[in-house]
């Protein structure tokens, strides 16, 4: 239970409450057994006497006006038929072709902006209310700081931004639009040092990317999306299904491999040694002239030290073949976990030398501001962001676009 609690907290979930104690039903008085029978037949129910008429009770009742009477609830909608995972995957891949700008209403930026819309609302609704033509005094600065913290930007970034406002605009009258524009600039400034693409060096033959992260944060999907992108660039790509404990993860990677034309090295049986698998995959990748090898890993073992040992072993073993591998260690973070993402980075940094981050599920989160907290407090490169489940929904992270998208401004 304690370890389950640890993993739940790491994933940003409240640990499950222990099951409620079962209360035994109240004891029934024993039924007297009929002589010679173990189970007496139930006695016939006594005839029900007609109830005497109830005295009339007057309950004062005022009918609500008609408009307030709730209409009868419509019948519940039919639950959608269960989706065949393969069909869902095929659909995601089919729609992952680079779409023309017109089809996406302005291309990647508008997708980013749409994806961030929940986070944007959280951040800007308060700004719009507070700063409609208002003098930037102490009270306004305090409200701004609270808004930024509530939008998951973290205390340090919120403080830094507010101090910037104090220096440049204190005492001036500002509108919500001015505040948003200045905010976008301040956020972009914080993000700029960490906005670095994941640079693949095919001459490493192959460039090895070890992908780590808590389970469910999007490791397998991110690998698949990257595979698709690299294939599009004409690179030869191999996936190693190193999450050998989860049959579904191996299967998922195999399907993505088939669809994207990436080779897949999968374990012969579940629970196989992940380090051995990574070693075999690297040997094969070298023999087959691959440019990139993406290694998936388990996100959860029975405890933190077991996971740490597994990751360390994978690295030790692949270094027997290439002492410089892995060339990148990519940590996936689920944006919906908000501030908990910072804790995940700290824990994974203790286990392995993380070289950069992929922040996923920004589309399903109102906590996209956490990327600013990550930049300010962790400072690791943010290579890419995921704003959807489609293969095309993983894009390089750029400070200006993200900052403007987050505060709801145009390109
Ligand atoms: N909306 C949305 N969903 C995403 C994104 N990235 C991944 N997902 C979904 O998140 C779920 C978990 O993703 P996986 O790639 O299986 O996560 P994982 O870290 O490999 O999980 P384990 O295999 O359990 O360790 C899947 O349903 C993905 O489709 C994203 O950017 N946006």
TrEMBL record:
Keywords, sorted A to Z: Cell membrane, Cytoplasm, GTP-binding, Hydrolase, Membrane, Nucleotide-binding, Receptor
Domain of life according to the entry: Bacteria
Residue ranges with Pro residues bias: 17-55, 71-80
Function: Involved in targeting and insertion of nascent membrane proteins into the cytoplasmic membrane. Acts as a receptor for the complex formed by the signal recognition particle (SRP) and the ribosome-nascent chain (RNC). Interaction with SRP-RNC leads to the transfer of the RNC complex to the Sec translocase for insertion into the membrane, the hydrolysis of GTP by both Ffh and FtsY, and the dissociation of the SRP-FtsY complex into the individual components.
Bilayer topology annotation: Peripheral membrane protein
Every AAA+ ATPase domain range: 205-408
Name of this chain's protein: Signal recognition particle receptor FtsY
Residues engaged in binding GTP: 213-220, 296-300, 360-363
InterPro entries, sorted: AAA+_ATPase, Signal_recog_particl_SRP54_hlx, SR_rcpt_FtsY, SRP54_GTPase_dom
Renumbered residue ranges of the record's region Disordered: 1-111
């Amino acid at each position: 239970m304690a370890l389950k609690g640890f993993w739940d907290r790491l994933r940003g979930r409240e640990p499950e409450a222990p099951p409620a104690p079962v209360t035994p039903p109240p004891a029934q008085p024993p039924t007297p057994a009929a002589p010679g029978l173990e189970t007496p037949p139930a006695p016939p129910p006594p005839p029900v006497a007609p109830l005497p008429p109830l005295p009339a009770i007057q309950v004062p009742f005022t009918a609500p006006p008609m408009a307030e009477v709730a209409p009868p609830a419509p019948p519940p909608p039919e639950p959608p038929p269960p989706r065949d995972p393969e069909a869902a995957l095929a659909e995601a891949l089919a729609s992952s072709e680079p779409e023309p700008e017109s089809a996406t209403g302005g291309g990647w930026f508008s997708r980013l902006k749409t994806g961030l819309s929940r986070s944007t609302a959280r951040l800007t609704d308060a700004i719009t209310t507070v700063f409609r033509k208002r003098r930037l005094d102490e009270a306004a600065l305090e409200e701004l700081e609270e808004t930024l913290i509530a939008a998951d930007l973290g205390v340090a970034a919120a403080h830094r931004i507010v101090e910037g406002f104090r220096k440049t605009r204190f005492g001036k009258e500002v509108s919500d639009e001015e505040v948003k524009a200045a905010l976008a600039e301040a956020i972009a400034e914080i993000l700029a040092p960490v906005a670095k693409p994941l640079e693949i060096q095919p001459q490493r033959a192959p460039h090895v990317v070890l992908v780590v992260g808590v389970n469910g944060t999007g490791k397998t999907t991110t690998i698949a999306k990257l595979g698709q992108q690299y294939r599009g660039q004409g690179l030869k790509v191999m996936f190693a299904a190193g999450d050998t404990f989860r049959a579904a993860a191996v299967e998922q990677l195999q399907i993505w491999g088939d669809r994207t034309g990436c080779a897949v090295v999968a374990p012969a049986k579940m629970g196989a040694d992940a380090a051995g698998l990574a070693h075999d995959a690297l040997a094969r990748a070298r023999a087959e002239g691959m440019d990139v090898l993406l290694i998936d890993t388990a996100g959860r073992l029975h405890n933190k030290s077991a996971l740490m040992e597994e990751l360390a072993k994978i690295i030790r073993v692949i270094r027997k073949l290439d002492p410089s591998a892995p060339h990148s260690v990519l940590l996936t973070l689920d944006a919906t976990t908000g501030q908990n993402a910072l804790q995940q980075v700290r824990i994974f940094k203790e286990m392995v030398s993380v070289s950069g981050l992929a922040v996923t599920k920004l589309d399903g989160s109102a906590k996209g501001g956490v990327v600013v907290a990550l930049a300010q407090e962790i400072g690791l490169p943010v290579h890419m962001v995921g704003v959807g489940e489609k293969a095309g929904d993983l894009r390089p992270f750029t400070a200006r676009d993200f900052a403007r998208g987050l505060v709801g401004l145009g390109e």
